[in-house]
Design brief:
heterodimer; A: alpha/beta; Rossmann fold; Alpha-Beta Plaits; nine-stranded mixed beta sheet; two-stranded antiparallel ribbon; B: 287 residues; alpha/beta; 11 helices
């Protein structure tokens, strides 16, 4: 079973839920937790895993052999991303625009382009308690998160349960993170911001045909907009988590919420029972 | 002649209070153009109540499609596609990046490329001045290109109206839309919070700002929820020679202002409201 935890809006509690749901599940199941927020990965801060493996995420980029190149301009012509500009006796390559599609090398009539590896980030794998944990870290200055996310996603579905911490927003990194999952838990907050961004995420999930249900975090702090919306649209609300200064403080310090806050453990238990009931 | 200054508000971590702060700066700054560059989860309009004056469609890229009547099912496109976007002689547009490889190599010329609708961008009027904003299409790509479009329109309006400031609500993260939002700006205001994640993400986004040669100014939101960690963040800033723009208290009025759809400084005279006013003064001395 592959379960994503997403929100649209940032800072609603995705990572907190992903980490604590995984920690609860590892008591009885084999669990993998994937942190797909490779731009700002945080799950490891709370999980404190022992990393045992580390590998670079490599993408292919063109390397031009000046001896073979006759500056015909074919590579620039076939590059849909404007990553190559051919001048009279010079080729300029813009690495942040390259999607590693391989067109330039494939179509070069002189076979003057070789594709070489470029590191965009790293993947680390390890264990925390019995949770198998994998995350990716995008190198600072890199624009494209998707190749790193795709490497993290290769660990999806190996264990019986995979929990996936999904980045905020609704664009390419989110789509890559949601790929081939069975169910999505949407974590939102009861404000017009939370509702608006949840609405955007719902459209994406519907398009990708992923079933979902909602968790309302800090549900006593805002208005009833999110709850009314869910009732109207017949969207299942899994749990509502109240704002609790003690929980916020403990979490800010990376404390063990399951152990130290009994009502929170009960909430996670109810969350899992709800998800199990909804996933075939 | 450019005589306006551009301030972009970013955070690394999401949900630290970017939009709350931008909403208030919108009310405090004079003669400005406002921009929402968080195109895939835009919220600023909920505070500024814009009246849309101009709506434009944005086509940022292309998607391949295969004509099954012409396709000879040779499988070359599927074999060569690096994005796993072709399966059983059909293109899954969710994963097609529009690279044109299949289009250029198909021996039967069965592949065509269609412009992809990436979303809408708008020029609106608000009580606080013009707002340029956007809405990325569902499952659309090219959020970075859409950000660039929004920003260049904001600059155009700033030149035409001789504005003094452009104030931009940026996206979370450090990737493509963030780079597109901040490159070339005069100042980035980084909003962080005193949590382990907030601090960790701050360090990465500071590195990203410096990588692209943009000057960072840090603001600690909800600093009183963990004064100890706030102090650590202050020490880090001092150590890295980053100016601290100010600290904002946890204040329930912030949620009240969002619920009422008003900038905090107009909704409340409370603690956080006063602290944000001071941050704007601090930004002015830096500009």
């Amino acid at each position: 079973m592959k379960i994503g935890i997403a929100s649209g809006k940032g800072g609603t509690g995705k990572t907190t839920l992903a980490v604590n749901l995984s920690a609860y599940l590892q008591e009885k199941h084999l669990v993998t937790l994937l942190d797909c927020d490779v731009e700002e990965p945080n799950a490891h801060i709370f999980l404190k895993p022992n990393f045992t493996d580390k590998k670079p995420v490599l993408v292919k980029v063109p390397q031009i052999n000046r001896e073979e190149c006759d500056y015909c301009g074919k590579c620039s012509e076939v590059c849909a991303f404007g990553a190559l500009t051919v001048l009279k006796s010079k080729i300029i390559f813009y690495r942040n625009l390259c999607h590693s599609c391989g067109s330039c090398a494939y179509f070069c009539p002189n076979k003057a382009i070789e594709e070489v590896d470029r590191e965009m980030g790293i993947i680390q794998k390890g264990f925390a308690q019995d949770i198998e944990f994998v995350h990716g870290i995008l190198n600072v200055g890199e624009a494209m998160a998707v190749p790193v996310i795709n490497e993290v996603k290769k660990y999806q579905g190996i264990n019986m349960i995979t929990v996936i911490d999904i980045p905020p927003g609704t664009s390419c990194p989110v789509i890559a993170s949601l790929r081939d999952i069975d169910f999505c838990i949407i974590v939102t907050e009861p404000t017009p911001f939370g509702l608006n961004d949840m609405g955007l995420l719902l459209q994406l999930l519907q398009k990708m045909e992923i079933p979902y249900a909602v968790v309302i975090n800090r549900w006593d702090l805002g208005d009833s907009g999110v709850e009314d919306f869910c009732l109207n649209e017949k969207i299942h609300i899994l749990i509502k988590i109240p704002f609790d200064k003690e929980l916020a403080r403990l979490n800010a310090e990376g404390g063990n919420l399951l152990k130290q806050i009994p009502w929170f453990r009960d909430s996670i238990l109810a969350l899992w029972a709800g998800v199990k009931g909804l996933v075939k | 002649m450019m005589n306006y200054k551009e301030v972009v508000v970013i955070s690394g971590k999401g949900g630290t209070g970017k939009t709350t702060i931008v909403g208030s700066l919108a009310s405090l700054a004079e003669e400005k153009v406002l921009t929402d560059c968080d195109v895939d989860a835009a919220d600023l309009h909920l505070l500024l109540q814009p009246e849309i004056k101009e709506e434009n469609e944005f086509y940022g890229g292309e998607k391949a499609s295969i004509d099954r009547k012409i396709c000879s099912e040779c499988g070359l496109c599927e074999e060569m596609c690096r994005f796993g976007a072709i399966d059983n002689f059909q293109v899954d547009s969710l994963f097609c990046e529009g690279c044109r490889l299949c289009f250029n190599l198909c021996p039967e010329e069965a592949v065509s490329m269609e412009a992809e609708f990436s979303g809408h961008w708008y020029v609106s009027q608000t009580r606080y001045g013009p707002l340029v904003h956007a809405k990325l299409g569902v499952a659309a790509e090219n959020s970075g290109k859409l950000v660039s479009r929004v920003r260049s329109k904001a600059h155009e309006i700033a030149r035409e109206t001789s504005a003094r400031y452009i104030i931009t609500d940026g996206p979370p993260g450090i990737g493509c839309p963030v780079i597109a939002s901040m490159t070339g700006a005069d100042l980035v205001l980084i909003v962080t919070e005193p949590t382990l994640s907030g601090f960790h993400d701050l360090e990465r986004v500071v590195d990203a700002a410096r990588h692209f040669n943009v000057c960072p100014l840090v603001c600690i939101n909800k600093y009183d929820l963990h004064p100890g960690r706030s102090q650590e963040i202050e020490d880090y800033c001092k150590d890295k020679r980053i100016k601290l723009g100010g600290k904002v208290s946890f204040d329930r009025d912030v949620i009240g202002s969002i619920v009422h759809g008003l900038p905090l400084v107009e909704y409340s005279d409370g603690k956080a409201s006063g602290e944000i006013k001071k941050i704007w003064q601090e930004i002015l001395t830096w500009l």
